[in-house]
Amino acid sequence: MYNQRFPDIKPYLKTHSLMPENQETPIAFIKKDIVENPLFYRRNHFPYPMLSSSFYWLPINGAVKEPKLFSMQELIQFPAKKLKVVLECAGDKRSFFEPKVYGEQWGNGGISQGYWKGVPLKALLEQTGLKDDAKEVIVEGYDYGKQPGIDGIHRFARSLPLEKALHPDTIIAYEYNHQPIPFKHGYPLRLIVPGWYAMASVKWVRQITVIDSHFNGPFQSIDYVYYPHKDNNNDSFPVTNINVNSTIQKPNNMQILNAGRHTIKGIAWTGKGTIQRVEISTDNGQTWSYATIKSDHRSQYEWVSWSYEWVVSEKGEYTIMSKATDSYHQTQPMSPFWNRKGYGYNAADCIRVKVE
């Protein structure tokens, strides 16, 4: 009835900042397993880059036998790979941490997915040839600026260990959902690293450099590091694989419901393997039941949609929870792994509703 009365009303991104632009996907309104460009979350450290015609050439240099400069025309001639991939901000759900942590206070919308098409990075590196002492591959974007807590001006750059860089599903993408990548999501070239948090999927790729040492750029050695202690850097380790996770999309948190039958719906995803089961509790975690997973959505790298039919007759307040388990037997914990920068939140999802 609501949509019939107001047919032009559409969901929109939730804004955290505009300079740089950081906006999250309205995940409760995503009905399909593909997120279209207008609702794909936006995560930036700096203002959008000013691109010149030189962007259409991709240099690969460093610890390689034959440095190369690839044109866009050359790139699209390589055998292409198309993958449906979840991209999740490492700070997704940061606002749920207790005690609170500083940073963009993302809710549950720092996540989107769609089809990415491009050329495997491995194929390009094979064209250059790797020297025997090659260890990591740095991918640098055109975006740059100053970052709080980091001295100086830096370009956004990340490295991959050789094993991950040579994985056949690590691609230099030039299409998203069968169209050129939108500018705000990395046009014309974006690295896509399936299974890793999206900081690894560098946008607006400027150049690729193979190195024979460990990369210590600030977005790898300072940011995107788990710091388990509030007052020191002991026991720190890098952010890489996406943690197993789930989100309840329906009903909404703090929604008032009538007694009767309700469908609890949501998504679940993981960085390694596939989702094997999703469990639902309607009594604050005291008892759990299995949700139904859509059978056609169990391929690697994408989220699965799930649902659970809940019949409630008694009035009152209820805490609904969801937790997913993947093929590596990783299950969402009841409490998150607290860390100072607020990365990788994956505690069992939790909402509250009132039945009248």
UniProtKB/TrEMBL annotation:
PANTHER family with a match to the protein in the record: SULFITE OXIDASE, MITOCHONDRIAL (PTHR19372:SF7), SULFITE REDUCTASE (PTHR19372)
Keywords from the UniProt entry: Metal-binding, Molybdenum, Oxidoreductase
Domain of life: Bacteria
Entry cofactors: Mo-molybdopterin
Protein's name in the database: Sulfite oxidase
GO molecular function term, any single one: heme binding
InterPro entries: Ig_E-set, MoCF_OxRdtse_dimer, Mopterin_OxRdtase_euk, OxRdtase_Mopterin-bd_dom, OxRdtase_Mopterin-bd_sf
